[in-house]
Design a protein that fits this description.
With 256 residues, this protein is of the alpha/beta class. The protein is built from ten helices and nine strands. A seven-stranded mixed sheet has the order 4-3-2-5-6-9-7. A two-stranded antiparallel ribbon has the order 1-8. Helix 2 links the parallel strand 2 and strand 3. Helix 7 crosses helix 10. The radius of gyration is 20 Å and the shape is elongated.
């Protein structure tokens, strides 16, 4: 049976190494999640190791050729044609669900933002990312790679770089190294203003070379109160996730 042709405009790089697919699929055994959504199953290399597990698995795929291939070759697969980024994923399951997949690298950051939007529904995720992006997500303060993705994702998930993957295991091979990155949701009382937190983090890093007193001017805070807070003398990359939560609380009280 003819295989699916990888399409550049969809960012497709099909995984062909079954050992890596099995290792990635087995990650879900670490978490107590019974429903899973696979993004971009392609020709089902990862899917074949997920389907035998005692879980409820659904898949979403934007490539009609891949959907047709999967339905013809994998008995019992629950795959729908659609765009993950435009789908109301909260309606796909009656309960919480994990997200897994060989994520298209051109939308991997958008996939994470979508997961964050639905964090109350998604207790865990595991996916393949460009190594550089994975390192940014897992980065710690005081580094050049630490940024918006790092702070936003780590506020809600404990992330881990599982293992690196060479380009040769994909068809066609990407021009970058890859990594499997996982996230487990932090169970916590979210007692801070989440939309404001997102706004503060994004604004702070958009002018990351400036001190926070200058980067956050748009919030129109009282200058004297700002100068008394030591955090405003720092740059965004110097603040931890908890510092940003504290900063958000300060902005909420003192913004104009």
């Amino acid at each position: 049976m003819a295989k699916v042709r990888a399409k550049k405009h969809l960012g497709q790089h099909f995984l062909k190494d079954e050992r890596i697919a099995e290792r990635t699929a087995n990650w879900i055994d670490q978490v107590d999640v019974k429903n899973w959504l696979e993004i971009g199953p392609g020709m089902g290399v990862l899917t074949q190791f997920l389907m035998p597990k005692p879980i409820k698995l659904k898949a979403i795929e934007l490539d009609e050729e891949s959907v047709d291939y999967l339905e013809r070759t994998m008995v019992g697969i629950d795959v729908q044609y659609g765009d993950f980024l435009k789908t109301n994923i909260a309606e796909l399951f009656d309960d919480q669900f994990g997200v897994i997949g060989n994520f298209p690298y051109n939308i991997s950051s958008q996939i994470l933002f979508k997961i964050l939007e639905n964090k109350e529904h998604v207790p865990a995720f595991c996916g393949m990312f460009q190594l550089e992006v994975g390192q940014r997500i897992a980065a710690k303060p005081h580094s050049k790679t630490y940024g918006i993705l790092s702070v936003l994702v780590q506020a809600f998930y404990t992330v881990n770089l599982e293992f690196e993957i060479p380009p040769t295991v994909f068809n066609p091979p990407p021009k970058v190294q890859s990594v499997v990155l996982s996230g487990k949701r932090i169970e916590q009382n979210i007692d801070w203003d989440v939309p404001l937190y997102f706004d503060v983090v994004k604004t702070a890093f958009q002018q990351r070379r400036k001190t926070l007193s200058n980067a956050l001017k748009k919030f129109n805070m009282n200058k004297e109160e700002v100068l008394q807070n030591q955090m405003f003398k720092l740059r965004a990359e110097n603040l931890s996730v908890d510092d940003f939560k504290e900063l958000t609380a300060f902005v909420a009280i003192h913004r104009g």
